[in-house]
Amino acid sequence: MFKAISSLRKSLVLPLHSNIRTLQTFSKYNAQAASALREKPLYQDDEYADVDWDNLGFGLTPADYMYVMKCSKDGEFTQGELSRFGNIQLSPSAGAIYEGTKAYRKENGKLHLFRPDHNAVRMQLGAERMLMPSPSVDQFVDAVKQTAFANKRWVPPSGKGSLYIRPLLMGSGPVLGLGPSREYTFIVYASPVGNYFKEGIAALNLYVEEEYVRAAPGGAGGVKSITNYAPVLKALSRAKSRGFSDVLYLDSVKKKYLEEASSCNVFVIKGRTISTPATNGTILEGITRKSVMEIASDQGYEVVEKAVHVDEVMDADEVFCTGTAVGVAPVGTITYQDKRVEYETGDESVCQKLRSVLVGIQTGLIEDTKGWVTCIN
């Protein structure tokens, strides 16, 4: 009997010791991982990261480093620093606004950014609307440049894609009631990307949404925050399940005037006139939108910002979308109230001509005479 009790005691104690050793090993691993994140980064000198550039899609592939800068309740940002990409500690009640820009590699290997100062200004305007402090233009651009340079091996070869850079401003202090955060954190991270839409540069098939709206007058439709994009997810999911590429949203009052797609601005072409919905607080003022408007004016087109009736869209010669993520994307068809209209696309289209100039400037194939490009090495 004593032998049986002794044997039972050993069978109970040994697994416990084994579990304790496992927990100790796991705790040691976590401590080492946390310590590694706090260490200053050692830049990788490889020319390229280990990525299949020819099959690069538009999904998150975290590059090596991110930039972190904090702001206290007095509204002043401290000196930020680069750290290894990894999880960050946040209050569960934190919120965010963000930006999107890209780094491109020229054929000679040099890297540059496209109009990052405009992203900085747009973040400031959005932060003001959301009652948040924001980095200065110089702080913003410097952070983006540092992040791009630190992750230079993740910038695809010329013509293979770009390094998508996501500046993020979030309330990182705890707050339960309705009110601004006590602390804010500014982060910049990066990911190499290819084409945004699965169609690549092929023409898109859009659906005009009549049930759901994405923004209303007096709201935050002109702010690049999660509050701007979360409302589109249900309609977008439904449209994609029906075989469409994206959704075109109408105004919330009369539901007769075009606003924008889920993640990009929209242009309508009729003859030599290019129209786009005016930014009146419900539409995001896209930086690619602004650039394309200027390029089109330079080429002799009449560019008009106005209220664009849905009937004008259905009678247009061409339609295309613009955005940092999507670039300049041609629209092949639009479906509205069970009526489907096809549009002109192809190499001779106005959309393609405007896209060629924009991409040429962004990638260094066309001389930048407008001061849009910022070199980072």
From TrEMBL:
* Catalytic activity of the protein: L-isoleucine + 2-oxoglutarate = (S)-3-methyl-2-oxopentanoate + L-glutamate; L-leucine + 2-oxoglutarate = 4-methyl-2-oxopentanoate + L-glutamate; L-valine + 2-oxoglutarate = 3-methyl-2-oxobutanoate + L-glutamate
What cofactor does this chain's UniProt record say it requires? pyridoxal 5'-phosphate
Which InterPro entries does the record associate with it? Aminotrans_IV (IPR001544), Aminotrans_IV_CS (IPR018300), Aminotransferase-like (IPR036038), B_amino_transII (IPR005786), BCAT-like_C (IPR043132), BCAT-like_N (IPR043131), BCAT_family (IPR033939)
GO terms under biological process = amino acid biosynthetic process; branched-chain amino acid biosynthetic process
The record's Gene Ontology cellular component field reads: cytoplasm
Query: What Pfam families does its record include?
Result: Aminotran_4 (PF01063)
The record's listing under CDD domains reads: BCAT_beta_family (cd01557)
Report whether Amino-acid biosynthesis shows up as a keyword of the record: yes
Which terms does the record give in the GO molecular function aspect?
A: branched-chain-amino-acid transaminase activity
Q: Which residues carry this modification: N6-(pyridoxal phosphate)lysine?
A: K224
| Domain of life from the UniProt record | Eukaryota
The UniProt keywords, alphabetically, are: Amino-acid biosynthesis, Aminotransferase, Branched-chain amino acid biosynthesis, Pyridoxal phosphate, Transferase
- Is-annotated flag, keyword Transferase? yes
Write the Enzyme Commission number(s) for this entry. Answer: 2.6.1.42
For this chain, the family text in UniProt reads:
Belongs to the class-IV pyridoxal-phosphate-dependent aminotransferase family.
What name appears for this protein in its UniProt entry? Branched-chain-amino-acid aminotransferase
Q: Which organism is it from?
A: Brassica napus (Rape)
Gene that this polypeptide is encoded by: BnaC08g13970D
